[in-house]
């Protein structure tokens, strides 16, 4: 049995508390000792040292650390120092970018109010909220933050805003009677108040039924603890690449050592040669270059109003195949706005956005004066507790959003607070969820009294006997009834929240009994309002659809309302389905995975439902982005491949659980972020192609030399210099390449697509083979001519390798031929190549570095020979690619 199904008396019996006494202080202390304080558990914050150590978990970084240890054991201290420096730089970059550790639970704690009013030992006392215990009788008033889960037993016009829990900003009118239905969602448990929600109106008394981690909010906190963040596709791909490289390095080392020993060479020399090959096989600069490329992407995304909290999440956006988005405040403006007014038998459409006080009124295509609707809006303004306030040059609503929307519409019709003050409120029959209406009895400046009633049309229309017209009023006919019902159905079909407004003239002798004043009333009209979709969202959804990305609406709102909004946004196709939370409850995990592909709207869902939906989509192979702004979104956001929170309206909990924060709360910003993510991934492929082709060239020149019984053409420190410095700068510049024009016209990358897909592996091997061959030719030529000067031959090989790679970098920018692209489109790359050449010259001609890198000065004839050889791979493949493209066009 659920708490909402029990009467107040039964609840107090179960919790051993009397309404007239409350808990005794002794009983409260015992329960506090047993249950613990009324607060959410928080994990210990991770220390900065722990966060720094976390950066060393990456497989590639572990490989580099192993190489450092091996180099140190062999006495190659320069190599060891060089590797450890690059590892530390990479780790510091990641550390500073991810320094904001997740603080979801501590932020959840901040949602709790500091004090509470409870009834103990026959008196009301104020205590710290963390001392509230189950069984406490507690008071709730407007503006209070609910401190625990409470079963409401008394209430007067009590309304609670539960967006922190359900995602819906519309306050819920609370009731006190038991609800007998089973399996109700939180939003439908209207006799309950939940921790972290806000009292917007009225007051009430309830019995605390759950505290701390036993509350619904506590269950969400527990979900956050249990939900493990998923590794991003980029992290998985780089981990796989690291494993491949280490296997290749180990096999090469073993092969060289065994071959050399078999040929009779000393074990130490062969082991050193094997280590040199291993160093050549591993692109030591790759982790740092990936980190820098992602960081540069982060800076570009900040300019596009998005903040990235986790570096690797940038790339994940590029492979996103499904976006699960909350409706309220994400796809909609989270501002109730009057859109239609039906009065005097005419439908009037209202323009204007949000809480702005400017707008126009139209009957069809014809603009009408605001005076045409002034009567109905004046009544809506008087029968109203909301207030308009200006803050930071923006109008804001204090009170119920529906009543606030009526005030805004009244101001558009040139009504003001002064018009409202001309009427004195004599009495009021407050709104509650059972009556579904509110009535005020007012007196105008002529001392004439009348009643104004506003509420649900299905409740008020049966009480109507008259209908207002230009002459005052006339009898209400069946024809009027049919027309109003048809109009009401049309408005509901447009996802409008509709209220009816009626009046009744009174005499001094008329009783203020609610039955008398709320029956035989005069129908004035209907007002339809909506939380409108954001203007830019429809275009963004269409752009995502063009990019092969499905958008799914997940909301706590009613199914019909959610479906109507989805249709306005062109989100749901003709065969698209809408699924409710109650239907989800009946589904197994397998059933949901089978059906989730056809569902575009999930309505009346709970936090657990959202998590279940995300996991079902991931189970079908999707890369899922989950957007949201409330506490209710946090667990699903954390479990998704990338959580996207709203910067303005989002709770701190949602922001801390997300990987991406949209500063402008604009769903459309996701489109720009996805484009940036796709571009970053393509740029990562470019510099992986560049780096690994260089590594293949290094491996082949070393391997062929060993097989041919030649001295090693390169020493380990030279290889490290090439991998970390000479290759590093151009690789970083490749990360700044502009996006291809068709980047948002292709589908998301398959989840299982490897780094080397789409012919990348073939390009790496063929380009690397050519780079290795020209380097070997340069070495053999120089060594045969001057065998007594091995250092000279190695300098020739070293310089040829560097120049071949620096020319090759221009071939890596895209699939097109190197001759078909303007090299000046990426000035960063030009600068990086020139910088690498300058550094190369320093290594060759600066005496102290000549000692470290074992180089000698080169003559002009050497440079002509080197440049001629270095250009061969890029020129050859440039012509080959151009020829292939021409044949394909034919």
UniProtKB/TrEMBL annotation:
Cation-transporting P-type ATPase N-terminal domain segment(s): 2-76
Record Pfam families: Cation_ATPase, Cation_ATPase_C, Cation_ATPase_N, E1-E2_ATPase
Keywords assigned by UniProt, alphabetized: ATP-binding, Cell membrane, Ion transport, Magnesium, Membrane, Nucleotide-binding, Phosphoprotein, Translocase, Transmembrane, Transmembrane helix, Transport
Localization per Swiss-Prot or TrEMBL: Cell membrane
Primary subcellular site in the record, as a coarse category: membrane
InterPro entries: ATPase_P-typ_cation-transptr_C, ATPase_P-typ_cation-transptr_N, ATPase_P-typ_cyto_dom_N, ATPase_P-typ_P_site, ATPase_P-typ_TM_dom_sf, ATPase_P-typ_transduc_dom_A_sf, ATPase_P-type_domA, Cation_transp_ATPase_P-type
Matches recorded under NCBIfam families: ATPase_P-type
SUPFAM superfamilies: Calcium ATPase, transduction domain A, Calcium ATPase, transmembrane domain M, HAD-like, Metal cation-transporting ATPase, ATP-binding domain N
GO molecular function, one term: ATP binding
Annotated GO CC locations: plasma membrane
Protein name: Calcium-transporting ATPase
Lineage: Bacteria, Bacillati, Bacillota, Bacilli, Bacillales
Organism: Paraliobacillus quinghaiensis
Catalytic activity: Ca(2+)(in) + ATP + H2O = Ca(2+)(out) + ADP + phosphate + H(+)
Transmembrane segments: 48-71, 77-96, 244-264, 270-296, 687-709, 715-736, 764-783, 789-807, 827-846, 858-880
Membrane topology label: Multi-pass membrane protein
Xref: PANTHER family: CATION TRANSPORTING ATPASE, SODIUM/POTASSIUM-TRANSPORTING ATPASE SUBUNIT ALPHA
Family: Belongs to the cation transport ATPase (P-type) (TC 3.A.3) family. Type IIA subfamily.
